Amino acid sequence: MLDRLQELKDEAIQKVNEANSVKELKDLRVAYLGKKGPITEVLKGMGKLSAEERPKVGQMANEVREAVADLINEKETKLEEEALVAKLREESIDVTLPGRPVGKGSKHPLTSVIETIEDIFIGMGFTVAEGPEVETDYYNFESLNLPKDHPARDMQDTFFITNDLLLRTQTSPVQTRTMEKHEGRGPVKIICPGKVYRRDEDDATHSHQFMQIEGLVVAEGIRMSDLKGIFEQFVKRYFGQDREIRLRPSFFPFTEPSAELDVSCAICAGKGCRTCKHTGWIEVLGSGMVHPNVLSMGGFDPEKYSGFAFGMGVERFAMLKYGIDDIRHFYTNDTRFLSQFNRV
Questions:
Q1: Where does Mg(2+) bind (predicted)?
Q2: Which residues are annotated as a binding site?
């Protein structure tokens, strides 16, 4: 029995030393030390031994079991370390190689233009107001002196959700909502940036969704000359000190009198060119004195208060500032286009 144990020990040691993988070692562990292994079989036969032989065989069996287990554990650890070293060698990184450049994002040109315009007007005492893009018929039309039969209410121009709900066609509803919050007490001096929606066919100069910034000033004694003074300051700060302005008579249902603001052409310095259609001027926004009906629906007494309002398309200002010829460039997310504004 002792000879058999010694043979098993020598045999197990030889096979463990010859093993080249962790899997082989696990198989050897089961084969020699498992419940059905030869060492266990020897222990099961100890009942047939004499009282003198039994302790010696039991002691040697335990020594053999421990020796084989220790050798397997040692060889298993060695093989795992070797495998780890080989894997690290295969997956090593050459830190001297140049890294892959990571592109940096930048502000969208429309965002930059909006922030620039906001900064200019905030510097003149305006505050920024916002409102919902899904509006009611009352705030989008009726409160702005647009009766039921006005062409701007036509289904071809407006995205209606229900008979009373729609996607706002301008940011003017924010003006009425702000006046209501003031409960008929001035002054009000705000600009309202945001998205607006109209059922236009998309082309180089039109989009069904675009950005607007509208302004409103309501107080006692406000005159058209105040509006002109605001425009002179704004245009020179946005377009440059050498730019001139002019106001042309126009018509809007929510202002009376109404005017279009023109800015002298930067390309020809007012002499006339293709950009300004040989007029020397470029139209940039609409404006006028707030209609008494609009003041009344906003909760202000038109006998006591007066005001002016204006609205501008952000895309148009961006196109004029950066020489962009197609409004669709702003919405295609073409990185070749957007990367030009990394320093904007």
A1: 256
A2: 256
Q: Which two tokens stand for residue 280?
A: 């020397």
pLDDT in tens, 281-340: 989 999 999 999 999 999 999 999 999 999 999 999 998 888 888 899 999 888 888 888
173 alpha carbon, distance to own chain's centre: 26
Q: How high is the mean pLDDT of the chain?
A: 87
Known binding residues for Mg(2+): 256
Query: Tell me: the pLDDT tens digits for 152-183?
Result: 677 568 899 998 999 999 999 999 999 999 99
State the helix-helix crossing angle for 314-322 and 109-123, rounded to 10 degrees.
100
Rg (CA), the chain: 42
Residue 15 sits at φ, ψ, to 5 deg, of -70, -35
User: Could you tell me the pLDDT band of residue 344, with boundaries at 50, 70 and 90?
Assistant: very low
Q: Which residue has the tokens 């335990």?
A: 62
Alpha-carbon gap, residue 211 to 328, rounded angstroms: 13
Measured on CA atoms in the order 185, 125, 120, 288, is the torsion positive or negative?
positive
Share of the chain above pLDDT 90, in %: 47
Q: Compute how many other C-beta atoms are within 10 angstroms of the C-beta atom of residue 344.
A: 17
Contact indicator for 331, 202 with CB cutoff of 8 Å: no
Strand pairing category for 127-128 and 188-197: parallel
Question: 22-34, pLDDT tens digit by residue?
Answer: 888 888 777 777 7
- Those residues with Cβ within 8 angstroms of residue 67's Cβ, 6 or more apart along the chain or in another chain: 9, 13
At 225, the amino acid letter reads S
Strand (E) or helix (H) holding 66:
helix 53-90
| DSSP state at residue 291 | P
**Which CATH superfamily does the domain covering 109-341 fall into?**
Bira Bifunctional Protein; Domain 2 (3.30.930.10)
